[in-house]
Design goal:
Number of domains: 1
Number of helices: 4
Order of helices and strands: HEEHEHEEH
Helix content: 25-40%
Shape: globular
CATH architecture: 3-Layer(aba) Sandwich
CATH topology: Cytidine Deaminase, domain 2
Structural class: alpha+beta
Oligomer: single chain
CATH class: Alpha Beta
C-alpha cells in the first residue's frame, strides 16, 4: 500500500460495498482527490440495459463536477481482482476531459497498487 493514498484507498474500499452490480457481481470503488483537497467517492451502478451502466470512476467525477470541482489531482480504484484493475476506455476519456495527466492508482483489495498517469495509459486522447 502506498501511504500517500491510504485515506483514498480506505474511502474506495468503503464505498465499493454500496455497488449495485447484480449482473456482473464485480464491485468497484473509486475515490477522487481534487486539487482543493476534497474527496469524492463513487461505485459502479449496473443496469439491465448494459449501456446504461455507470462505472465507479465516472460517478466520483460526476459528483465532484456537480459540486463545482473541475481540477482533479488523483483517483484510486479498488476491486476484488488478482492484479490491480484498470479503468475502461469511457472512464479514461471522461478523465481526460479534466486532467490529461491525472494520477491513477489501480488497487486490489489486498492492497496491491499500481500507479500510472492517464497520459501513460491513454496517450491518444480525443480532443475537440
Amino acid at each position: 500500500m502506498i501511504e500517500e493514498i491510504k485515506k483514498l484507498f480506505d474511502a474506495a474500499v468503503k464505498v465499493r460495498e454500496n455497488s449495485y452490480s447484480p449482473y456482473s457481481k464485480f464491485k468497484v470503488g473509486a475515490a477522487l482527490e481534487c486539487e482543493s483537497g476534497e474527496i469524492y467517492t463513487g461505485t459502479n451502478v449496473e443496469n439491465a440495459s448494459f449501456g446504461a451502466t455507470v462505472c465507479a470512476e465516472r460517478i466520483a467525477i460526476f459528483k465532484a463536477v456537480s459540486e463545482g470541482e473541475k481540477k482533479f489531482k488523483r483517483i484510486v480504484l479498488v476491486a476484488d481482482t488478482e492484479k490491480p484493475p484498470s479503468p475502461c476506455g469511457v472512464c479514461r476519456q471522461v478523465m481526460s476531459e479534466f486532467n490529461s495527466e491525472l494520477e491513477i492508482y489501480m488497487c486490489n483489495l489486498k492492497g496491491d497498487c499500481k500507479k500510472v498517469t492517464l497520459l501513460e495509459i491513454f496517450p491518444e486522447q480525443f480532443r475537440l
